[in-house]
Amino acid sequence: MIDFGFDKLALIGAVALIVIGPEKLPRVARTVGFFIGKAQRYVSDVKAEVNRSIELEELQKMKSQFETAARDVEQTVHREVNEASSSFEQSWSEATAGLSSDGANSGTDYWTPAPPTYQHPKKNWRVKRSATPRWFKQRQGVRTHVQSGAARVARFRPARPGSPR
After folding, report:
1. Between these two residues, 12 and 70, which has the higher pLDDT value?
2. Residue 67 binned pLDDT confidence (cut-offs 50, 70, 90)
3. Residue 20: inside a domain, yes or no?
4. How far apart are CA 156 and CA 158, in angstroms?
5. What are 135-142's contacts with CB under 8 Å, separation 24+?
6. CA geometry: angle at 142 spanning 139 and 146, to 5°?
7. What's the confidence (pLDDT) of residue 130?
8. Residue 136 domain flag
9. In the Cβ-directed half-sphere of 52, how many Cα atoms lie within 13 Å?
10. CA dist 157 → 139, 150, 154 (Å)
11. Which of 14, 24, 69, 123 has its CA 20 to 30 A from that of 140?
């Protein structure tokens, strides 16, 4: 990189003052500063884009590593489950080899319990609704009793002057 010291910058400024002149020098300096700033912003944008692409590549590599590790774990789990189920099936078949399905060989009847039947939970929604305190229902605007539309209008109608209400 080019190394500019104070002496070189002073020499460049003196030459620019002589060549350009004192009237145009501030405007030229502003323009040069503007273009230098624009170049610096462009360089920093390029650096940021390169860093983002490098980070993206690293993330993609990490993602592929995690995917392969997860696949390996999944295959291992499936293999172990298959081995365990096959050994269980084998030991089950060995244990039940002497028994027949109708019980004729052993002479004893095995009682098998009936499968459980569905029972309704017997939840009463009226009981649930009444468990909420009345003050809470009034605050939330829950209707606690039925009222016709005409009765609601009459209830909330403003009182006329001279009426007993």
Report:
1. 70
2. very high
3. yes
4. 6
5. none
6. 135
7. 63
8. no
9. 6
10. 21, 10, 5
11. 123
pLDDT for residue 20 is more than 90: no
Q: Report the domain count for the chain.
A: 1
Q: Cα(111)–Cα(100) distance, rounded to whole angstroms?
A: 15
Residue 125 counted as domain residue: no
CA 22 vs. chain centroid, Å, equals: 63
In this structure, the chain runs to a length of: 165
- Distance between CA atoms of residues 50 and 83, nearest Å: 50
Per-residue pLDDT, 83: 94
Q: Is residue 59 part of a domain?
A: yes
CB 17 within 8 A of CB 25: yes
Residue 31 belongs to domain spanning: 6-89
How far apart CA 103 and CA 110 sit, in angstroms, is 8
> pLDDT at position 160, please?
78
Q: How far is CA 54 from CA 18, 45, 49, 62, 157, in A?
A: 48, 14, 9, 12, 72
Structure tokens at 7: 């002496």
